[in-house]
Amino acid sequence: MQALCDSSASPPPLRIRNLRDNNPPEWVARYVDGSTDEWSGRIYKEFNAQSVHVITPFKIPDEWPCIVTMDAGGDHPRAILVLRQDPHAGDVFLTNEFYKAGTLMATMASWIKNPAHSGIPHWQDAEYICDPANKQVIFEFQDVHRLNVFPAQKGPKLPGIHRVSGYMHRIPGRIKRIPDQLAKHPLADGGDILITDAPYLWFFNRCTNTITEHEEWCWDYDQRTNESKNKPVDKNDHTCDALIYGLRNLPSLEEVIKNDPQMEAMKKSDYFSYKEALRVAQEKSWAADIDSSNIQGAGEAYLTEVGSDDEIDRRSEREPIEY
Question: Where is this region: Disordered (predicted)?
Answer without folding.
Answer: 299-323
